[in-house]
Inverse folding.
């Protein structure tokens, strides 16, 4: 049968449609249709330049800021969590994960613990990436920039050694791929920190303002690391060159990152300055020490400083103690200083048995701090134990809230043979139940996703 | 595999098309036509009946007069079929003569079955019995007319087995839908939505601003008044051809169409009120010596708790309790009002049918300014703005214009366009921290006359009262346009082409404003005000085309082959701006002293092709095989194409000659389907990248870059396969209809947000990897029966229920995932299950009436497991609904009630947890008459080292009286004579009438926000009861 004209027309139309479809398909390769550019991200190739390297360097500083006095409104940085675990802060909210830390019964799944650990490692990785990029794409740039990145690494690795159990991990990302680390001891962490501090110091030979600042910062952190390694004489000698006026600050602003110590204590009232916590704790809130000024929620000083509510976030019956060391959201926080250098010298003198120098350095730290009402009138208490107590009290008040206290408490156990239960808060916990026995942070459970870690064994031991 | 496979599929289709014309030519003669009228047994016309020529693509809809006409029919003997919901299918054989009109009338007999005999599939409409899946349907038009339906959540709740709807509890709150359980550990478990063939945005939690837990969902932008029907495609076995992203099911929405015939105008108004009838918990206070009520602060300090009393720390002088919700002076709850006015116009001819609809609605929530706050403001000479006095309000205007145009007997197009403009105000509520309404009502001190720091009486509120809370003004404005253009071309009776292009555009502006000096004084800058203004655009594009070739392969065997391509694109962009420290009078971001801005974009595209072959053997055995292939912009660089196969069979066994015939059995159908579908990863989940940051330096803020994520080049879609088996039957003169379905859905290559070890230092905490496997299996059943059908009395019942067994089969070798202190993901257990240390025993050993913890196990009156235990499902495992309907007065009066049950899950009473743990006002902490269980869980969370919240994760089972409605259709003579109208319908309805039974001790087992797959009641309101009166007058 011969097709009719209309059928032939239909056939012709169909062929036309099919051919057109195929032509469109061929023209519009699906790869092109599906090719999407997302403006929200920065590709790895975008940082492979001098400007890119500088941006990554600044990113490392931002990471260090978040890891220490920064953090976020939902999860605090190391300084707060560390002080909560020690005797600087009391928990003032209903979050169980914070209460675990305050009570020294930290579980490895603790979200705040995990966040702090991530932030520390982020700073470490960013520092490492910045060094690589600066050396490759800005080799003639200021060496202080590179040296500062070594400071970031050294600072973080030292802080991790001070806070975590044996078994902590230092992984990295290399050429875009993950390189999983293995578990190391805290001593190994201090050794890694020392190596990075030395690398930074080796680079920096100039006398520019930046050079001096970063050299001092590296020197102070080197001294701190040496103290942790029980090399007090070396530490004292190292930091002697650092002037008391030196400060290396974490800077805050409303548009970058608030000072979260101020935010969590003064505004959110999730933290309260502690006093005599668990019997062994120092009386930070009530000592009236000008280095740790406080007010009580609802009093005129607190209201004048912007804390208008009277009670802690959890309405607990304990008073709300508010710190005034950082009374505004953009108050900067000193993380390495000449005052710390003097305290290191004092400890070196104590260890060397030179009591006079010990007291002299302590008083120098007080007078050089130039804090109204703080005078250098300490006298030798006369006994070794009392001197140790004095040293660590001076350190605690001079360095309050900046992540020193846990390391100091662990050193009291390791280097000064104190019993853990005579150092850390103990006995009845203020919200019910008793304090636990933790003397350090466990490595978070999330680290079990590292193939080198055995499930349930994120710490090789929990010894001080 | 590359896109060449997609092209190959299309080429195959094209080649088939190439061979068609010869076949066509053999048939080519001058066509004839078929026309006639479809009526019911009483001779009344039946509108919108589908009249189709069996075995080809030709058909027509009847107009309001029951008339239809099918033109261009090839001469010869043809079978013509008439289908209409509520009537038995009719088939007739006639001979069509060349170039002549053939008359064919149908008289259809009504049946009890209310299921539509036609369902919408990805390749077009198809008879229900030809499909191997059970596709749930909701007769939206009827439901809206007879119930107090305010939004899409109301429309879908308890209507379809296997479909669990979580509604919001405030006006404008979102709806979250889960179909056949949760399948994805890390990706969205939301179904996708298709409106008139076009994909539309349906995300939950659709806001950039937090007011606690309550957030809108975009599906609620759709107006139920404009919807004709909803079909729920429940799993991959049915959703295969919808492609990547359809594994969680597809909700197919068809809007109303005009019916050919005289223009019909219908005005509808709905007036309603809603009230919060729920019982909220009392706040307690244990008084000890030295405390005086009117000098106490807002805090619950210096009390004497039960365990303190037991240990001798203090003595309880007295215990008081106060419930501000029960005090007219203090309660924030009032009467919410809802009103709606809409006008529908429909009609047209065979050549052009139209449906036009416009509606205005306004709904104010139940939250009001308490009396004491009103007095306070009056005393101070202050006032709140109108919008602040009614902080929860939804105002919406919607419009729709649908046109169906028959350009020729072979070509028709449908243009569907809908527009929504709405403003939604939500108050700070739920978990809004210090300044939320519920946080302040639940946290009160247990007496009425407590004082604020400034000496104002708080009337039992915790710290802040509504006169301050409501001054944080949060608004979401949405302008949304959904449009589609659908074309059909039937060049011959065996060949049909469909195409569809569609756009869903939504512009969302989220604003939050607290003027200078207006916000609660929370310290810092809080009194200086702030403004947030975030503007987002959502574009969802759909373009698809397909061709279908139908032919009879042999006398008993009919073939339908379809091939097509589809492109979907979902684009989102947002600009956000915010400022703090506003000057007096300022309301704009630009006025703030400290400003910030942000930008966000995402773009996801899917390009796919499919082929499908349907074989029908003697019109009783139907086999369907299909293959869909997709490429997607979010797949990793090393993964290119996803392939999704499908195979289904439907067998009407009772039509076989060998099948024994019983008087009580009308039809028995066996069906089975297997298919696969997927869920795609996020836009940039596969790539490695850095992110921008800002660093504070001594010279100011400086731009910085931080490493963000490693990416995953091997990323591919999550793939779900599903086997479905079912038996459908109709019995006793079609008065009873049953559907029973078993399904087994496995999601392999499940995307697990694999936690990255913190030591790596990446910004991202996790990376998507295709590692896991999740299984959902269960049963679904639907039974509907017309128990009595008399002139003046009828009784029908509908029962639907489902059981879902959810299990995380594999985590791909990863350790358990601890999602939170109350949730873990472990192999062998359901996704998002509740896990925490459990209270294993408690008892008053020393007989002092108080449960106490002691570190010494022999003295402790409570024991707690050492490790986290599985406590239960987070979402319902069982759901049942039972609807009773009664007809009176010759079906003019219809009364129906719906009761539904949800069970098998635990609900976290997080409100009571915080009351006991830190608000210090719960019964278990203070009340000497509290049960030992209440005391035990309080002691567990406060005093045991575990600090477990396990005692607050409670049985969540409940039976709710969901709906009651009375609908009356006035006699036509009355309407015509007294109102000069055509129809008059009046409906009185109530919704969320109350909980009939529950073990849950909190306010309400559905009192939670709308996000997450493990909802908890955390300082949330319970759902209010809605009462509505609806009047609809047609002309």
């Amino acid at each position: 049968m011969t097709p009719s004209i209309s059928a032939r027309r239909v056939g012709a139309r169909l062929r036309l449609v099919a051919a057109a479809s195929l032509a469109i398909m061929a023209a519009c390769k699906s790869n092109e249709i599906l090719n999407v550019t997302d403006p929200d991200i920065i590709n790895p190739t975008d940082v492979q330049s001098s400007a890119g390297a500088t941006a990554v360097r600044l990113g490392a500083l931002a990471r260090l800021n978040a890891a220490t006095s920064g953090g976020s409104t939902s999860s605090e940085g190391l300084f707060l969590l560390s002080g909560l675990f020690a005797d600087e802060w009391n928990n003032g909210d209903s979050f169980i994960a914070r209460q675990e830390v305050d009570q020294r019964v930290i579980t490895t799944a603790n979200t705040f613990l995990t966040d702090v650990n991530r932030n520390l490692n982020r700073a470490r990785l960013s520092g490492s990436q910045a060094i690589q990029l600066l050396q490759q794409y800005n080799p003639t740039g200021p060496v202080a920039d590179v040296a500062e990145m070594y400071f970031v690494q050294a600072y973080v690795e030292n802080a991790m050694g001070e806070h975590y159990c044996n078994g902590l991990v230092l992984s990295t990302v290399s050429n875009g791929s993950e390189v999983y680390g293995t578990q190391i001891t805290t001593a190994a962490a201090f050794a890694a920190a020392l190596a990075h501090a030395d690398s930074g110091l080796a680079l920096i030979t100039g006398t520019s303002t930046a050079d001096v600042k970063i050299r001092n910062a590296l020197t102070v952190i080197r001294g701190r690391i040496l103290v942790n390694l029980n090399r007090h004489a070396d530490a004292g000698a190292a930091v002697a060159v650092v002037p008391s006026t030196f400060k290396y600050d974490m800077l805050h602003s409303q548009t970058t990152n608030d000072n979260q110590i101020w935010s969590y204590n003064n505004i959110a009232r999730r933290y309260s300055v502690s006093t005599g916590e668990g019997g062994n704790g120092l009386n930070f809130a009530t000592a009236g020490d000008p280095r740790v000024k406080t007010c009580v929620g609802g009093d005129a000083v607190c209201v004048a400083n912007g804390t208008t509510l009277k009670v802690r976030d959890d309405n607990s019956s304990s008073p709300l103690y508010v710190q005034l060391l950082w009374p505004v959201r953009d108050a900067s926080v000193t993380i390495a200083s000449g005052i710390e250098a003097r305290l290191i010298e004092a400890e070196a003198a104590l260890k060397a048995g030179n009591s006079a120098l010990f007291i002299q350095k302590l008083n120098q730290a007080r007078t050089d701090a130039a804090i109204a009402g703080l005078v250098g009138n300490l006298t030798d208490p006369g006994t070794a134990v009392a001197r140790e107590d004095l040293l660590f009290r001076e350190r605690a008040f001079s360095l309050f809230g900046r992540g020193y206290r846990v390391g100091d408490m662990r050193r009291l156990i390791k280097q000064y043979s104190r019993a853990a239960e005579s150092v850390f808060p103990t006995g009845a916990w203020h919200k019910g139940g008793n304090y636990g026995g933790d003397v350090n942070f466990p490595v978070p459970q999330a680290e079990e996703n590292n193939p080198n870690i055995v499930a349930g064994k994120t710490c090789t031991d929990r010894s001080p | 595999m590359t896109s060449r496979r997609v092209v190959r599929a299309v080429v195959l289709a094209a080649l088939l098309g190439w061979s068609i014309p010869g076949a066509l030519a053999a048939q080519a003669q001058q066509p004839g036509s078929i026309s006639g009228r479809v009526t019911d047994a009483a001779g009344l016309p039946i509108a919108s009946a589908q009249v189709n020529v069996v075995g080809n693509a030709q058909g027509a809809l009847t107009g309001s007069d029951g008339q239809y006409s099918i033109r261009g029919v090839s001469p010869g003997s043809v079978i013509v079929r008439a289908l209409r919901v509520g009537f038995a299918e009719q088939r007739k054989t006639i001979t069509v003569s060349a170039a002549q009109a053939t008359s064919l009338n149908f008289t259809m007999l009504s049946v009890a079955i209310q299921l539509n005999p036609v369902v919408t599939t990805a390749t077009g409409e198809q008879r229900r019995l030809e499909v191997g899946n059970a596709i749930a349907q909701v007769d939206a038009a009827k439901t809206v007319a007879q119930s107090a339906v305010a939004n899409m959540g109301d429309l879908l709740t308890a209507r379809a087995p296997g479909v669990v709807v979580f509604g919001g509890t405030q006006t404008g709150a979102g709806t979250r839908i889960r179909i056949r359980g949760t399948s994805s550990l890390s990706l969205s478990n939301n179904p996708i939505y298709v409106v008139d063939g076009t994909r539309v945005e349906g995300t939950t939690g659709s806001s950039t601003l937090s007011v606690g837990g309550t957030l809108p969902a975009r599906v609620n932008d759709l107006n139920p008044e404009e919807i004709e029907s909803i079909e729920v495609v429940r799993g991959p076995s049915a959703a295969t051809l919808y492609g990547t992203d359809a594994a969680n099911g597809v909700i197919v929405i068809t809007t109303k169409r005009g019916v050919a015939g005289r223009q019909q105008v219908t005005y509808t108004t709905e007036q309603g009120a809603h009230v919060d009838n729920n019982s909220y918990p009392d706040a307690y206070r244990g008084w000890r010596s030295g405390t005086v009520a009117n000098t106490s602060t807002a805090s619950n300090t210096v009390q004497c708790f039960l365990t303190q009393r037991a240990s001798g720390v203090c003595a309880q002088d007295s215990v008081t309790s106060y419930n501000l919700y029960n005090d007219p002076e203090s309660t924030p709850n009032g009467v919410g009002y809802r009103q709606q006015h809409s006008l529908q116009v429909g009609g047209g001819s065979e050549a052009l049918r139209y449906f036009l609809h416009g509606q205005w609605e306004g709904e104010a929530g139940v939250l009001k300014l308490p009396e004491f706050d009103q007095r306070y403001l009056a005393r101070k000479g202050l006032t709140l703005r109108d919008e602040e006095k009614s902080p929860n309000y939804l105002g919406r205007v919607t419009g729709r214009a649908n046109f169906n145009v028959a350009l020729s007997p072979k070509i028709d197009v449908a243009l569907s366009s809908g527009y929504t403009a709405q403003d939604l105000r939500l108050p700070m509520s739920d978990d809004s921290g210090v300044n939320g309404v519920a946080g302040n009502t639940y946290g009160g001190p247990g007496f009425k006359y407590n004082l604020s720091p400034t000496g104002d009486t708080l009337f039992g509120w915790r710290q802040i009262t509504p006169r301050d809370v409501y001054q944080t003004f949060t608004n979401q404005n949405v302008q949304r346009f959904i449009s589609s253009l659908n074309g059909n071309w039937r060049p011959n009776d065996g060949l049909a082409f469909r195409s569809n292009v569609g756009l869903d555009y939504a512009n969302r502006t989220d604003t939050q404003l607290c003027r200078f000096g207006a916000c609660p004084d929370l310290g810092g800058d809080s009194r200086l005000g702030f403004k947030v203004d975030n503007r987002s655009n959502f574009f969802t594009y759909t373009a698809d085309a397909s061709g279908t070739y139908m032919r009879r392969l042999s006398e008993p065997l009919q073939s339908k082959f379809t091939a097509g391509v589809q492109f979907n694109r979902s684009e989102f962009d947002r600009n956000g701006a915010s400022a703090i420290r506003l000057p007096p009078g300022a309301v704009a971001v630009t006025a703030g002293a400290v400003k910030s801005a942000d930008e966000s974009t995402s773009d996801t595209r899917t390009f796919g092709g499919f082929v499908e072959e349907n074989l029908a053997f003697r019109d009783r055995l139907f086999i369907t095989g299909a293959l869909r292939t997709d490429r997607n912009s979010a797949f990793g660089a090393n993964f290119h194409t996803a392939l999704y196969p499908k195979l289904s069979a439907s067998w009407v066994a009772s039509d076989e000659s060998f099948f024994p015939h019983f008087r009580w059995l009308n039809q028995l159908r066996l069906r089975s389907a297997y298919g696969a579908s997927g869920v795609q990863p996020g836009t940039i989940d596969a790539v490695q990248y850095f992110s921008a940051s800002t660093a504070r330096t001594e010279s100011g803020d400086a731009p910085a870059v931080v490493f963000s994520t490693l990416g995953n080049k091997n990323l591919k879609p999550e793939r779900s396969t599903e086997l479905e088996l079912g038996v459908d039957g109709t019995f006793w003169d079609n008065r009873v209809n049953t559907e029973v379905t078993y399904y087994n859905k496995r999601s392999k290559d499940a995307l697990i947000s694999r936690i990255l070890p913190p030591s790596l230092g990446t910004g991202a905490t996790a990376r998507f990897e295709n590692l896991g496997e999740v299984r959902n299996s269960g049963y679904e059943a639907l039974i509907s029966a017309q128990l009595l059908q008399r002139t003046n009395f009828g009784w029908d019942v509908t029962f639907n229920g489902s059981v879902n067994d959810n299990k995380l089969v594999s985590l791909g070798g990863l350790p358990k995932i601890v999602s939170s202190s109350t949730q873990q993901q472990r192999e062998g257990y359901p996704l998002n299950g509740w896990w925490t240390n459990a209270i294993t025993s408690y008892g008053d050993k020393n007989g002092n009436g108080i449960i106490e913890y002691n570190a010494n196990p022999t003295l402790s009156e409570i024991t707690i497991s050492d490790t986290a235990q599985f406590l239960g499902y987070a979402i319902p495992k069982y759901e049942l609904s039972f609807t009773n309907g009664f007809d009176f007065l010759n079906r003019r009066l219809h009364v129906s009630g719906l009761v539904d049950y949800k069970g098998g899950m635990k609900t976290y009473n997080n409100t009571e947890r915080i009351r006991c743990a830190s608000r210090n006002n719960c019964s278990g902490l203070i009340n000497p008459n509290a049960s030992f269980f209440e005391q035990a869980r309080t002691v567990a969370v406060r005093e045991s080292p575990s600090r477990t919240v396990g005692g607050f994760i409670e049985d969540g089972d409940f039976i709710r009286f969901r709906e009651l409605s009375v609908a009356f259709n006035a006699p036509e003579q009355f309407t015509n004579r007294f109102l000069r109208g055509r129809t008059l319908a009046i409906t009185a309805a109530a919704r969320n009438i109350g909980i009939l039974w529950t073990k849950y001790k909190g306010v309400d087992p559905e009192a939670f926000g709308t996000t997450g797959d493990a909802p908890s009641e955390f300082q949330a309101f319970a759902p209010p009861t809605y009462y509505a009166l609806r009047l609809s007058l047609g002309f």
User: Anything to note?
Assistant: The longest strand of chain B covers residues 557-580. Residues 4-27 of chain B form the longest helix (24 residues).
